[in-house]
Amino acid sequence: xxxxxxxxxxxxxxxxxxxxxxxxxxxxxxxxxxxxxxxxxxxxxxxxxxxxxxxxxxxxxxxxxxxxxxxxxxxxxxxxxxxxxxxxxxxxxxxxxxxxxxxxxxxxxxxxxxxxxxxxxxxxx
Length: 125
Prior knowledge:
Blueprint: H1 14-21, H2 24-32, E1 37-38, H3 39-46, H4 50-62, E2 66-72, E3 78-84, E4 88-93, E5 99-104, H5 110-124
Antiparallel strand pairs: 1-3, 2-3, 4-5
Helix pairs in contact: 1-4
């Protein structure tokens, strides 16, 4: 069970979130992505090999804890930046001993939602 303060199509499982948060490299990436960063910047900032970084970003993406933002460069091509996509993650247990996770996300303005749509369209091309 997951609740968002901002609607999202993604519904990560409790397991996906726990796996990502249990990983030291993933936690390092989350600490550095309060502001958008490119993969190259993250490699340097987190001292993680490139192949490892992309595996960790995939874990964080599957858990919907990091979001990708693509920008089109004026000279052609695009740049992908990664940014932490939550304000708070709460794991709780109910009266029936069932675990649940609540992910609170920052509200998105219209420009950010449009950028997300364009980014997803670029992935499909």
